[in-house]
Design goal:
Layout (H helix, E strand, L loop, with lengths): L11 E2 L3 E7 L8 E7 L4 E5 L4 E8 L1 E6 L4 E5 L3 E4 L5 E5 L5 E8 L16 E2 L1
Parallel strand pairs: 4-11
Antiparallel strand pairs: 1-2, 2-3, 3-10, 4-9, 5-8, 5-10, 6-7, 6-9
Length: 124
């Protein structure tokens, strides 16, 4: 059995927020669970080419936007899943941080960080 708290784990600074990687590849579960904070007022261009990701909003608000311009509001209780390795923009509201529980399959090593830039999508 694995029992772990965010207070026991140093957060990974991923660019526009932090991620507590509660389960990683080393745990042998085949998936990763993270508590993710996206800082208010930020936009992150992201794409996971080797992982599928689902995120459940536990607090705050924001949006997820597709390359074709579709935008979806994210508020507490909303889940979104990137089921096709979708390139996307994760946008936190201007007035509050966005808090997510993120699940990745296959599992992350745990030390991955984004390289955010204006000219492309950060990926791992």
């Amino acid at each position: 059995m694995i029992v772990r708290s965010t207070s026991e784990i140093a957060p990974v600074e991923w660019g526009n927020g932090t991620s507590h990687r509660l389960l990683t590849e080393a745990d042998g579960m085949g998936f990763t669970v993270c508590e993710t904070l996206v800082r208010k007022g930020t936009t992150s261009a992201l794409q996971y080419r080797r992982h599928l990701e689902a995120c459940y909003c536990t607090g705050g608000s924001g949006e997820i936007a597709t390359l074709s311009g579709e935008r979806y509001k994210i508020t507490e209780g909303t889940l979104y899943a990137l089921d096709e390795n979708d390139a996307h923009y994760l946008i936190a509201s201007d007035y509050e941080d966005l808090r997510l529980v993120s699940v990745f399959s296959p599992a992350l090593r745990g030390d991955e960080k984004h390289t955010l830039s204006a000219d492309g999508f950060s990926q791992y």
